[in-house]
Amino acid sequence: MPLLKDPVVTLDDVRVRALSLSSLNLEVTIRVENPNSLGITLRQLPFTVMCSSGNREQEIARGNTGRVRIAARGSTVLRIPTTSQNTAIIGALATFFTRGGVQVTIQGTATIDAVLFGWSIPFKKTLPVTMEQVADAVAGKDTVK
Predict the structure, then answer these.
(1) Range 119-125 contact pairs with CB under 8 angstroms and sequence separation of 24 or more
(2) How many CA atoms lie within 13 A of 80 on its CB side?
């Protein structure tokens, strides 16, 4: 039986903060739950935001949580802003307007430290970005809860 259980890393949400033809600002919300009776440290959690454009996925942004302490049997919600300023946005926008929405996939790997042990936990989740979210972002409304 393992001494330490894997923390549970989940993508709670992705929200459009602002949108223009040259950039896309997102807020990615990641939850890390520690089921152990010992506190752990999330050393880092680099992630990539991808969007389907036609029949392939294109990277539109990257982010990282940095170092975060998570209490024993605790849960931490991390809200990470990301900005994309690349040409993949044009393809994503074209897909968005022709299909009325897009699927955004976020994947990464959490690196965990606990006393003398360290390990990695991959995660991946796909969420929709809706026309309403984008309309609110263009109108300057704060769509983040």
Answers:
(1) 119/6, 121/6, 121/7, 121/9, 123/9, 123/10, 123/11, 125/10, 125/11
(2) 25
Q: Is residue 144 part of a domain?
A: no
* Measured distance CA(72)–CA(38) in Å, rounded: 5
| Domain count within the chain | 1
Write down the pTM of the prediction. Answer: 0.77
How do 56-64 and 68-70 pair as beta strands?
A: unpaired
What does the pLDDT average to over 84-109? Answer: 73
Instruction: State the residue range of the domain holding 131.
Output: 8-136
142, part of any domain: no
Residue 3 in any domain: the answer is no
Of 80, 76, 12, 15, nearest to 41 by C-alpha is 76
Two structure tokens written together for 81: 């802003």
The confidence band for 81, taking pLDDT boundaries of 50, 70 and 90, is very high
